Amino acid sequence: MLAYPNxxxxxxxxxxxxxxxxxxxxxxxxxxxxxxxxxxxQMDMFDNVILIAGxxxxxxxxxxxxxxxxxxxxxxxxxxxxxxxYRGQLDSADHVFLLKYFLSSQCAIMWxxxxxxxxxxxxxxxxxxxxxxxxxxxxxxxWAGSLFGLTGLLVRWFESYLMGADVGHIPxxxxxxxxxxxxxxxxxxxxxxxxHFGSRQLGLFAMLMVSAAVAFMFKYGMGAHExxxxxxxxKSYWMKIHVPANFIGYGAFSMAAMFGAAWLxxxxxxxxxxxxxxxWLDELSYKAIALGFVFFTIAxxxxxxxAAEAWGGYWSWDPKETWALIVWLNYAxxxxxxxxxxxxxxxxxxxSLAGFVITLFAxxxxxxxxxxxxxxxxx
Amino acid sequence: xKSLLDLLxxxxxxxxxxxxxxxxxxxxxxxxxxxxxxxxxxxxxxFWADFFMLCGLTDVYHAWWFITLLAFMAASTTLCLWQRTPxxxxxMRSYREQKSIASLRxxxxxxEFDLPADQTLQPGLASYLTAEGYHYKHVFTHGGGSxxxxxxxxxxxxxxxxxxxxxxxICVGGLVDGNVLLHxxxxxxxxxxxxxxxxxxxVQQGDHVLEQPLPFSIRLKKFRIEHYANGQPKDFASDIEIxxxxxTEDVTLQVNHPYTYRGVTxxxxxxxxxxxxxxxRMLSNGVSNAISGAVGADLPLLLxxxxxxxxxxELRAVNVFDKDDVPGKxxxxxxxxxxxxxxxxxxxAFRLRDKQGQSDEWNIFQRRIEIGGAGYLLIxxxxxxxxxxxYLRLPVDVxxxxxxxxxxxxxxxxxxxxxxAAVAVxxxxxxxxxxxxxxxxxxxxLEGFSREGFRTLTRNAPDASVGRLYxxxxxxxxxxxxxxxxxxxxxxxxxxxxSDTVEMRLxxxxxxxxxxxxxxTGLQVTHAPGALLVYLGCALLAMGVICMVFVRERxxxxxxxxxxxxLAFSANRNNPGLQAEFDRHAAAVAGMIRDExxxxxx
Lengths: 379, 602
What we know:
The complex is a heterodimer of chains A (379) and B (602). With 379 residues, chain A is mostly helical. Chain A contains 14 helices and no strands. Chain A is globular, with a radius of gyration of 21 Å. With 602 residues, chain B is an alpha+beta fold. In chain B, strands 13, 14, 17, 18, 19, 20 and 21 form a 7-stranded antiparallel sheet that branches. Chain B has a 5-stranded antiparallel sheet with strand order 1-25-24-3-2. The mean pLDDT of chain B is 87. The chains are: A mainly alpha (379), B alpha+beta (602).
């Protein structure tokens, strides 16, 4: 990644990182080995590979972005606490205080949503008053929301197994669950950018997008939050990687759109005094789209491989596939225009907003208006 | 020709073709594809249907113009690649050491330092470059100067080659599997009943179906469906035997677990009925006739003296319905399996076709179904022109039969029984004149009810209060028709059911007795020789995109001559972060000069 001018976090690098990193790696390695040895009977080769790859991925990410260490350990501790409190009974959520109000997945997800809304309000206050102290609170609230969100997803994963050994599955299988994932991933992408770029001025923009997602999730989720058993076509290890990769892409594209909007607003004095320079906004849009493009490409490839296994062909011109292709072609054209034709400015900003509309249609519109093989995320 | 080539390889064309393919793909996803012509005419009118079909919009992804677009995309990418690869490879290896000092000075990021006498700092700078991840080349320049030309991130250009090469591979593979470049790939389906053998699959092509012979035969030994606790299907699996001449192979196919044999891949895709044995009873005019046959068969029968055909269309062994008494879901409800849904047991759908060829649809359930605390037998019926299926609820007696209903229906259709019941109702009045009136009224009401159900009340009663009175009279008369103490609730339900039967004009009633299920498996059979190209392309694409986005190509030149050190820096993409990176390098170089300078040596 680039060397950003980074006034906020510059002073923090002197902590004794070696010990902390070492401790984190030791805990991670220990937990992975424990899982591999203790649950060997329940796991097949793919589970083992995914577990080990996941652990290595987390280690690499948490070494370069150390805040992930307390986040992942915190979420793990809360999830283990929830698992302990459940005592193997789903009904414990009705009478155990901590589960009933904090740790059961549905509660944790509610807290995630409330924290993200709170973060948006705090960022907005700080942004309007140009007060760093409020924005710093916004960052805290966003981190708290992410902790709750990750815990909620992990506990939900466990709860699905409490519903029946054959029901259990990773919580990325329906629209409600992927909205939680989307909110979490988009916030994490923003927080990463905030830390590396060293400015909280875009917090309001990114968290507005997340807040909208949370609002939709709450409204829609009121009837659809219950854990459902998987239909046969979804019972595949591909789901574990295809869906998250897709949502990193969606999250990055939606952030790019917000940065595009910020770019368009940045010529007014009111906004100009509260936003990074246009050159930076342009650069951040590019970075978001480039990152999204990488993950979206990988997700599409994983989807093709999965389709080849489940539907008998790597490509079926199913509406969801077709729209994924449209999204991909659109951003490919965007990148060509920027990188090769050196197009800059308003055109790209508007284009990234239009790209978001296309992405949104591919994500939601296809499920609402078109029918096809991808019918699990129906509204 | 030259101008065509120029157009094809221009970036403007490349961006345009990406956009055009995107728009074309959009039309295909919005207009439903590969439907029979009738559907389009029905939905959009004849003119538009003709227009769509003329333009190939009803099967966009196989239309010649869409394939041409894809071919153009592939051609444009190929030309770009062809044109740029040599320069790219050259650039990847080049250190650009020939760049003139004047042009280096003009770069956006350059700085000049004073060197202490006779110092070149060459070893220190070289190790700095290596530490920063740069490769460098050392050359002497004309004026007796020394130049370190360094580069990092050559993988970015490799990424470019990989991505564009991958797109060509994927397009070629896709065109092979789309039967454009070669013939022989297919995606077909076949249905095999349990115990049956098949060696021909069917390919749907627009309106018609083509036969695709397979190089081997498949025998279905057993088809299995597993269910979750709430009745929802969990997994479909087929135990099949592949028969290839003398060689046989036992294989189990499951959803998401295909099997490839001799380049042909078999997928579990669905299931169908393989001719399950059904036995049911037809009840008309108090006579019960047993009928039996297999699903898919047409059974001739006599319906109220008229010849008719019964076509058994579908057997469902499991019917999962939402429970009707579920409280609203709370924000934290969990909905364990079976909380909201229940399996109401097997059902049978059939059509009853009369001799004019008119048919109506039926759907009957085998087991009694609890509704509001009482048990009913459900019979669904939809006449030819009715929009939706209506369900008749027959009340079930304690012993599980529908005897109360059948006895009531028979008695209502028997004039003698009706007259007797009318007399019996009236006899309890005590007053002679009232008795006569009551007997007559009850007689008229019962006769009317037997013909047209509860409608007779609205026809005969002048107002609602009289209607209620008549209703009571019918209920009491019905009790007497049965000549015994029937459960009042069952009786009321039986009256309602009779009324519905009359209103729905059901020629007979049917009861679903038993069945022996025979399943058929639905398989997809594909042969995709282009798939390997596509997968290879996908792997290269993923690697290439990662290289292009995450690797930045950067160059540094350090030229020292005549007591001056020139630092110049450039990157493949200008961005506001470069200044900070350049400042870092400049500070490092300045630091080295300071450390090496004689003042520091003391």
